[in-house]
Design the sequence.
């Protein structure tokens, strides 16, 4: 049972000799809050000593226990007891040691998973990462996902935070890499402030990029326009209502012909004065040719009355023409 | 137009013994050949770039001749696809293969020559049927012909059958091999057409539109029947004038009488394809139109936009000649009616219409 135990040396190390930069070689912590950990360290000390390796310049890198050491440093500790790994300890094994240590007691956020994958890359072939490690990180094992996670390292810090907090959809964040930094940060800010759902985010992103391409305007210009500004400054609406109003306004702008057809159909129906509880539903996007008539009734007499009423509506014969801007005008 | 660069050959199990493979090795001297296992992604083939410089030789065990799957709830043409390979060395932003294929590289089915006899048997056993066969569904019919020698055996094979036409659809000008052939009957040389702007921005590595039409002219002068496909039609500011320019080029160089058909199809795509395209072509403008979900789940232009494009373009083509066999690819009955004033109503009738074009053509050429 002792066969695979790592031979470490217990060592009191000056914290200033330990490399605690956020981009350290084994680091897989992102967007964390140290306060609770600091309270625990202040009360009980560091319960599990961090694992470190010695660098060529005699400084140390943290293998496992980065947050513990950072917490101790913020508490003003000058040194901490650590376990020093052997000098010939393989770097990949050190990375795996930290991964195991993390996975045993917490769930990594998306950015942390991306950090792990990125750090594996110098040691492992992509195929190996896909087959042996993506599932371990709760990521469906395929090449597209591997590439997607690798692309995350290129993202801006603010966007990484939004992803880590699960405010911003991973898909939208990935798509945002194709637009200018200034514009993606504007979209990120809007998503955070109005708490868009993931589906809304995708719609928002598509509408903005496509309106930008159609109209030759920048995304920032669209977002700063009077139409959006009016919605954002409306004191009567809350964040979700503002979000919905923005996507509706952008949809109308993105699909002018379809929106006009939908409005024309609604106008036509309203002019018809259908009996109450009666509705006519057009085919989705007017693509098919079959319309639906919906009648709400509670007894045969009511149904007969509504059918007679419908029968006498002269404009009904034109109903399939309403959306084409024709009929009942 | 320059030939495409092939950097390596990947030969799968069994494929090395096929005669086409041996010819390919001869035609690509000095190109390194790696033996690979069936279905294994080899040597870091990259799906993102679709690895268009690797030629993967495959002894294909599937069906070579299959009806075009068409699409649900729209009228299709009843075409048969001869599956000669998958993927293409050109790079069109809108290409459906980007989502359709899950393996990279240019995949050539090297046992086609050995298998084709059984296809011939099937065709001969059904003399009452007209077989409209094309090789341009999953690859370009001619782009790799100088390497594979497809037309060396496909032309004599199909040309000698009375109930078959072989349509070779391309965006290249690679007609030298075709022109050397003695076979004309039953062979339709077809070009995909688009506006110079779409060709320049969205159809990377393809031949310029004028050069395609000049290649068609040459084939027509040498006795080949022609077809053209305005597919995908892309809607943008100025589309009408620019498609008009293409028709003017046709008018200038092509005699309309020996055109068997001209198809039109507006840009349509499965929703997933949009994201694959945007990843590979972030600056593409093909999604700027108003797309809605169609009855088959594919995204299509909002119906009035499609009708506008079809009716205007067909009107313009009909001014050139009134018997071009214009048809719509994967469209609904009401779009046909609104665009043309008539409709074949269903796939069978459209198939019959196109079969009759084949019969008429063989009467004319006799």
Sequence:
């Amino acid at each position: 049972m002792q066969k695979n135990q790592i031979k470490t040396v217990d060592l009191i190390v000056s914290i200033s000799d330990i490399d605690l930069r956020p981009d350290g070689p084994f680091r897989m912590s992102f967007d964390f809050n140290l306060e609770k950990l600091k309270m625990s360290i202040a009360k009980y000390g560091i319960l599990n000593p961090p694992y470190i390796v010695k660098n060529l310049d005699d400084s140390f890198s943290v293998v496992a226990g980065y947050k513990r050491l950072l917490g101790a440093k913020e508490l003003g500790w000058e040194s901490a007891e650590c376990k020093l790994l052997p000098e010939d300890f393989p770097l990949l094994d050190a990375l795996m040691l930290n991964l195991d240590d993390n996975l045993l007691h917490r769930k990594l956020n998306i950015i942390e998973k991306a950090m792990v994958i990125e750090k594996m890359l110098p040691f492992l072939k992509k195929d190996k990462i896909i087959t042996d490690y993506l599932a371990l990180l709760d990521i469906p094992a395929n090449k597209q996902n591997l590439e997607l996670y690798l692309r995350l390292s290129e993202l801006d810090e603010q966007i990484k935070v939004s992803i880590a907090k699960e405010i911003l959809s991973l898909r939208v964040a990935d798509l945002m890499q194709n637009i200018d930094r200034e514009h993606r940060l504007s979209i990120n800010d809007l998503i955070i402030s109005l708490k868009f759902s993931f589906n809304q985010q995708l719609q928002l992103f598509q509408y903005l990029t496509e309106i930008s391409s159609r109209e030759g305007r920048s995304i920032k210009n669209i977002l700063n326009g009077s139409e959006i500004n009016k919605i954002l400054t409306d004191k009567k609406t809350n964040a979700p209502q503002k979000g919905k109003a923005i996507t509706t306004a952008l949809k109308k702008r993105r699909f002018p012909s379809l929106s006009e057809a939908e409005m024309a159909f609604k106008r036509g129906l309203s002019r018809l004065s259908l009996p109450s509880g009666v509705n006519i539903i057009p085919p989705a996007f007017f693509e098919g040719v079959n319309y639906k008539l919906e009648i709400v009734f509670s007894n045969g007499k009511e149904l007969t009355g509504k059918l007679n009423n419908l029968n006498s509506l002269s404009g009904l014969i034109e109903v399939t023409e309403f959306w084409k801007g024709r009929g009942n005008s | 137009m320059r030939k495409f660069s092939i950097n390596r050959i990947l030969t799968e199990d069994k494929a090395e013994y096929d005669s086409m493979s041996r010819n390919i090795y001869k035609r690509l001297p000095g190109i390194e050949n790696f033996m690979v296992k069936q279905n294994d992604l080899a040597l870091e083939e990259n799906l993102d770039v679709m690895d268009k410089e690797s030629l993967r030789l495959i002894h294909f065990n599937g069906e070579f001749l299959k009806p075009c799957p068409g699409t649900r709830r729209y009228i299709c043409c009843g075409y048969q696809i001869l599956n000669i390979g998958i993927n293409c060395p050109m790079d069109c932003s809108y290409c459906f293969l980007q989502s359709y294929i899950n393996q990279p590289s240019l995949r050539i089915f090297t046992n086609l020559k050995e298998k084709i006899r059984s296809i011939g048997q099937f065709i001969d056993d059904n003399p009452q049927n007209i077989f409209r066969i094309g090789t341009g569904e999953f690859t370009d019919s001619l782009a790799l012909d100088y390497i594979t020698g497809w037309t060396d055996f496909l032309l004599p094979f199909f040309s000698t059958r009375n109930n078959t036409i072989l349509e070779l659809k391309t965006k290249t000008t690679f007609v030298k091999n075709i022109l050397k052939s003695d076979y004309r009957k039953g062979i339709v040389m077809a070009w995909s057409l688009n506006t110079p702007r779409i060709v320049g921005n969205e159809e990377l590595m393809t031949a310029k539109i004028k050069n395609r039409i000049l290649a068609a002219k040459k084939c027509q002068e040498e006795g080949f029947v022609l077809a053209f496909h305005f597919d995908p039609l892309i809607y943008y500011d100025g589309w009408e004038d620019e498609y008009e320019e293409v028709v003017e080029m046709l008018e200038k160089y092509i005699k309309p009488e020996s055109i068997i058909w001209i198809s039109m199809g507006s840009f349509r795509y499965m929703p997933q394809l949009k994201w694959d395209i945007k990843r590979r072509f972030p600056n593409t403008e093909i999604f700027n139109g108003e797309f809605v979900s169609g009855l088959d789940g594919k995204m299509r232009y909002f119906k009035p936009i499609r009708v506008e494009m079809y009716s205007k373009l067909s009107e313009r083509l009909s001014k050139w000649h009134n018997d071009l066999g214009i048809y719509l690819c994967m469209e609904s009955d009401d779009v046909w009616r609104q665009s043309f004033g008539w409709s074949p109503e269903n796939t069978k009738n459209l198939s019959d219409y196109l079969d009759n074009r084949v019969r008429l053509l063989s009467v004319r050429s006799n």
